[in-house]
Amino acid sequence: MEKEQKPCHLVLVMAPFQGHITPALQLATALHSKGFSITIVHPELNSPDPSNHPEFAFESIPDKFTPPRHLDRDVVGLALSLNKNCAAPLRQCIEQMVRSGDRITAVLYDSFMFCAQTVVDELRLTGISIRTSSATTLLLLPLFPQLEEKDFISQIDAPELQALQLPRLRALLSQYPTSAMTEMRVAFTNAVRSSSAIIANSMAFLEQAALSNVKQHFPVPIFAIGPLHKLAPTIGSSILTEDDECIAWLNKQAPKSVIYVSFGSIASIGEHELIEMARGLVDCEQPFLWAVRPGMVRGSEWIEPLSDGLKECVGEKGHIVKWTPQKEVLAHGAVGGFWSHCGWNSTVESICEGVPMLCKPFFGDQLLNSSYICNVWKTGMELQELERGNIERTIKKLMVDIEGTEIKNRAMDLKEKAADCLMEYGSSSCSLNELTKQISSFS
Ligand code: UDP
């Protein structure tokens, strides 16, 4: 009788933030469907609920990490301390698996958890880097701060990337303290360079130039297998409770009339900005659905800075909730625009539903994503200042004026291209099959 073959075992090291947890679980789901068995190793912070994912094994590692109230104040410092704190427990955890006879085919790690590659090298295992942001960030992090602008731009020889207005991004990225940024850049780049492959939640058509540039700068294959949320929808990855009633509210609105507003899980705003946003939204005369995360407004628990009068006006025109089922919201026929901080997941989710975007990036890769949306794909407009008149005008331009029509058409065009990627012979389906073969070859 033929001996039954044990499935190849993958360890997936997750980073403990919403924009990382969701794509990691989606990737795990996709690989599980290809026959791999999966153990998810995660820091204690924002632990996923194993009962939502009985198909995976879970291992928690101590992170000795108390997150600051506003994570966006120092993202680089956050990455460095998390990696320092997690390196030893992660090593112990994986070593324990190896000692107990577990044959690990590969360790896939979120590239935010770059300490994992060192652990993998020490234990002579195979490491695969997961990029939950755009593939283009793989070019910026290693090269940007160390090269003069002209040298950098000459290395990135593609019109789409020139259109990103890299000098502006360079100025914005240099807002981080140099030594910490350099430490992170070096650790990150070394990890990705030493890995055996890179997995990106992207699509070939979306970042074509960047994907081929990445191949020149990193000597490892890169697999763009997105959009992960369409490839492997997964439940229960939300840290906050989703308010499902907002769907009932959307059901009552006219097609494509609603502007949906969300700044993701990390960005924060001041009290004055909250008031300006509320005023601008009320004045633009479009219905709006607004996700205001508890703690998103600095100095407040929720929306206390809005006066009772303003809350009343908001209640007539719009609907404020703490957290939405965002993918469902974006897919809803009533939603005609998305005012976003341009996190990568939100960007990809919006592309997949053909929703044009109003871009208000805050930090890090959000600036790059916004530049892609407004200058390269041209499926959105940038909102410069959080001032009521400016907000009102820009929302009208996107949602009502003739100017928005071409943007809407291009957004629908990207939606179709994104769907094609996951067809049988689409670029992401082919890439996932190649990735599966590559991982299996490590066993
Ligand atoms: N999200 C959600 N409900 C909300 C706001 C955000 O489900 O009210 C989800 C969104 O769908 C996305 C993630 O949170 O998958 C945010 O990730 P992103 O990369 O856009 O931004 P980050 O939170 O990392 O800044």
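^ uridine-5'-diphosphate complex. The mean pLDDT is 92. The two ends are 23 Å apart (CA to CA).
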